[in-house]
Hints:
- It comes from Rhodamnia argentea.
- By secondary structure, the chain is mostly beta strands.
- The protein is 10% helix and 47% strand.
Amino acid sequence: MASFPNDITTDILSQLPVKSVARFRCVCKSWKSLLTGACFINAHFDRSSKYRTVSLLKYDDNNSSRIGVYRPHHRELSHLNPSSGHPSRYNVVDSCNGILCLSVYYKDKPGLPDIFLWNPSIHECMVVPQHHCRVSGLIAFGFNPLSGHLDDFKVVNINFNFGARTDCHSSRAQIYSLRSNSWKKIGNVFSSWLGRNLGHQVIFQNFICWGTHARVNGQIVASLVSFDMVEEVFREMALPDSMPSEEKFITLFEGCLSLIVQNPSSQCYEVWTMKEFGVTESWAKLYTTTVLMDGFLQCWPLGAASSGEVLFVKSFYCELRLSLTSYVVSYDTRRREFEEFKVGVEAYCSSRLVNYTESLVSVVTRD
């Protein structure tokens, strides 16, 4: 192997899983230099993004958080959990380039949560340094794809100040850059009503996106909110009038930014996708699920696990609207059928589905 050109060696080794590559770093100094270099890490990630992308299901069970590796149309989870020493309960903000952003909130210091960046493939984890401004419950995570660095990650912390009158409400955001290991402020960012109505985020190209739905001054207000990781600005985009005005659940479906929306007249969910990002007229309804709500039954979408599968949390309620039991179900978009597998969750609001690609990207060392 020592006589092979570097490009051939790189092509061969980039096809291996992360665990194997990590072991081969110990073969010799030249291999360690090759396998820890930016060129190889980029080549390996390009290959992994095509063949080694899975869905991670974060959920709470028995007063602790768990992360399960979900493979399409499989009825069992293999588990992937942070190493010992981390809190037993946490939230998953999102996953990007093999890195998971986790947030932990403590009852005794609600304004000072911990934010972790964790690569489970190479067992690396770092705590984002605390900022002098109050860290909020609304945290976003993404990276700048135009910088040329897979580790150009950014954590966005959004705070809202609610005054006595609506016109006194304001918002502000701070951005943490991993590469510079520093925070900066970007000021008043968008309408304060969004602070209580942004759901889970989705990373699409160089944007962090949310679907919003709220009643403001007696009227339903809905839009698509995005944060540009390159220009570091927030924008709101209108949604088509033909889309139901109910709550929006954002996801990626077949490579496109999509929204899962409940239709109150049919009690079904509709899946809408935006064929051209930023163009309102490009929204189109892909399909409608079978009936989900019936009496005390409620289903809440987690997102698309693959091109033909959407996961939901299914809950039953008693007369006091307290959840008796909740579990995950899979909806096959081709057969229009639901399938169940034995994963019980405490609640929909603490569950999260994200796409994950294993990588060698480090959150500790910088180039």
